[in-house]
């Protein structure tokens, strides 16, 4: 091959790669996730319908680095369990995973409140917090045979760089140690510290974050389909390359509701190749209505991914 032919070949390959890089990112999976255990409503894993043709993640809510007392205080990374351990025990985790091979179970860190108080991300130092967090979470994850973690801190005492370094190092260490296989983050659009902290975390540690469980229900109640579609595209841009999940709350507190077109929007996103999955907050609130929105969500995902296998 002469020099000119080689040059043409290399130029062509470079052009093709450049074109490919500009194509829309296809979601890595069609995932259904459900937060469970935060409201102490006696909900069990086995209560929730599980479609065998989706990847199904339960997310235990919550593990929190606060004392488990009537007046809780921060513990600098020493995580304790705050979910309903009576109904969501290690043996029950093992049971649901053995019955359904498409099920994985994670735990979520933080949350909005702890025993009615604001749950703040608070540390003494990066090294001590990360060390304590890795140790305490490894113990919980191994005891419960869990698969991943979700980051849902919503209030911050520390600065942005500290949050990024702590959470980024925590996820990286747990993955490198083989303790977890996936990690997600659960931001929402508040135009303030939540947005800044999570986007900074994404910019530095996107390579270790598998899913973005974006809280679209934090937008105003009465959100329309067209507004939701714009919000979703904004988050695709903010978390570039990420696997963005659509979300709904069965509390009815905000966002795009089923009666206003949530599933219509999900089908539209699916047809555009943008729907990375759906998550629901939460099983505790859905129990009374028979999990009808969980069934509908999984049906949409299953038709997109009939040949799914784990």
TrEMBL record:
Residues 1-18 form the signal peptide. InterPro entries: Chitinase-like, GH, Glyco_hydro18_cat, Glyco_hydro_18_chit_AS. One of its GO terms (molecular function) is hydrolase activity, hydrolyzing O-glycosyl compounds. Residues 30-310 form the GH18 domain. One of its GO terms (biological process) is carbohydrate metabolic process. Keywords: Glycosidase, Hydrolase, Signal. Belongs to the glycosyl hydrolase 18 family. PANTHER family: 2, PUTATIVE, EXPRESSED-RELATED (PTHR46476:SF13), CHITINASE 2-LIKE (PTHR46476). This is GH18 domain-containing protein.
């Amino acid at each position: 091959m002469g020099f000119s032919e080689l040059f043409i070949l290399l130029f062509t390959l470079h052009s093709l790669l450049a074109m490919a890089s500009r194509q829309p990112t296809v979601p890595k999976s069609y995932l259904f996730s459900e937060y469970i255990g935060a409201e102490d409503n006696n909900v069990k894993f086995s209560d929730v319908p599980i479609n065998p043709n989706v990847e199904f993640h339960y997310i235990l809510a919550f593990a929190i680095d606060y004392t488990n007392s009537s007046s809780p205080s921060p513990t600098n990374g020493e995580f304790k369990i705050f979910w309903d351990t009576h109904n969501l025990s290690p043996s029950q985790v093992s049971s649901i995973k053995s019955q359904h091979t498409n099920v994985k179970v994670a735990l979520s860190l933080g949350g909005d409140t702890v025993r009615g108080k604001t749950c703040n991300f608070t540390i003494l130092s990066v090294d001590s917090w990360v060390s304590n967090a890795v140790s305490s979470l490894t113990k919980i994850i191994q005891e419960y045979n869990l698969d991943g973690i979700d980051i849902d801190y919503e209030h911050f005492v520390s600065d942005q760089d500290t949050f990024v370094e702590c959470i980024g190092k925590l996820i990286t260490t747990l993955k490198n140690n083989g303790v977890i296989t996936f990690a997600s983050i659960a931001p929402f659009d508040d135009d303030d510290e939540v947005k800044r902290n999570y986007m900074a975390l994404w910019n530095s540690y996107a390579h270790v974050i598998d899913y973005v469980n974006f809280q679209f229900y934090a937008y105003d109640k009465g959100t329309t389909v067209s507004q939701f579609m714009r919000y979703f595209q904004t988050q695709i841009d903010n978390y570039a390359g990420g696997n963005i999940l659509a979300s709904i709350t069965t509390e009815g507190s905000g966002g795009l509701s089923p009666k206003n077109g949530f599933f219509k929007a999900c089908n539209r996103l699916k047809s555009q190749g943008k729907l990375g999955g759906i998550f629901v907050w939460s099983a505790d609130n859905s129990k009374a209505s028979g999990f009808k929105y969980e069934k509908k969500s999984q049906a949409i995902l299953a038709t997109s991914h009939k040949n799914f296998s784990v």
